[in-house]
Amino acid sequence: PYLGNMALILLEVSPRPEQIELLLACAKTWMPIYKGDIRFWRDYGFGKRWCLIIRKILTADPTVFGKGGSRRGDLERILANLVTEGIPEASQLEEALKTLDPGSGI
Questions:
Q1: Given CA atoms 53, 57, 58, 59 in this order, what sign does their dihedral have?
Q2: Contact criterion met (CB below 8 Å) for 17 and 61
Q3: Looking at residue 106, what is its pLDDT?
Q4: Residue 94: which of 105, 103, 83 has the closest Cα?
Q5: pLDDT < 70 stretches in the chain
């Protein structure tokens, strides 16, 4: 968790759309390693912190996760996993994504 924490600290300072690939790569790496690990996702706050960074980027540039893009698919899979880990911010982000595509039925 030490390196993951360092990555999040770096990204929390000034979240930007250019950092999306790193954020997605971190989450994709952590998912299989820490699946079901309450301490990692909730107690250490990795899930919440990751979601808050994504939320800030999404607020700054809603087009970064355009419908149908590979980033969007990756984000939706990660959020679904975080929801199963009990991260409420992931559910909130799923709802925010739906508002980006009104009438899409996502």
A1: positive
A2: yes
A3: 39
A4: 83
A5: 102-106
CA 75, 53, 88, 95 dihedral sign is negative
Number of Cβ atoms within 10 Å of the Cβ of 37: 15
Which amino acid is residue 18, in one-letter code? E
Q: What end-to-end distance do the CA atoms of the chain give, in Å? A: 33
* DSSP E strand stretches across 1-106: none
Joined tokens for residue 34: 């820490």
Tokens describing residue 39: 């301490």
Give the per-residue pLDDT at 31: 96
User: Given this model, what pLDDT does residue 102 score?
Assistant: 56
Mapped onto helix, strand or coil, the DSSP state of residue 14 is coil
Give the residue among 33, 92, 25 at the shortest CA–CA distance from 41.
33
Q: How far apart are CA 106 and CA 103, in angstroms?
A: 8
